[in-house]
């Protein structure tokens, strides 16, 4: 990956596989964990803020060489909470997946909303 990737898109179901493909193409290597995190972050926006919400997705390298994926949305009030869903719950596992594969993750308030980010180990 050379330059950081920055794309503006609408959080729509059809954008999820497109974002996964874009991440894979930009990194140039298999990256299932990064693609999974991209899917989960976009799906959270669709689920909690609604289809068609404008978002910005960025992909870059940290100083240590990890891959940093971030999704910025316009709602500072829809905060993410790591839940422990019951065995019969059909939703609520996205952040658990992100937490399991990412080295670290978090949420930052921005002037116009929030950015949810995660950092994952780079693959050779």
TrEMBL record:
Keywords: Kinase, Serine/threonine-protein kinase, Transferase. Residues 11-117 form the Histidine kinase/HSP90-like ATPase domain. It comes from the Bacteria. Pfam families: HATPase_c_2. The keyword DNA-binding does not apply. InterPro entries: Anti-sigma-factor_SerPK, HATPase_C_sf, HATPase_dom. One of its GO terms (molecular function) is protein serine/threonine kinase activity. PANTHER family: ANTI-SIGMA-F FACTOR RSBW, ANTI-SIGMA-F FACTOR RSBW-RELATED. This is Histidine kinase/HSP90-like ATPase domain-containing protein. The lineage of its organism: Bacteria, Bacillati, Actinomycetota, Actinomycetes, Kitasatosporales.
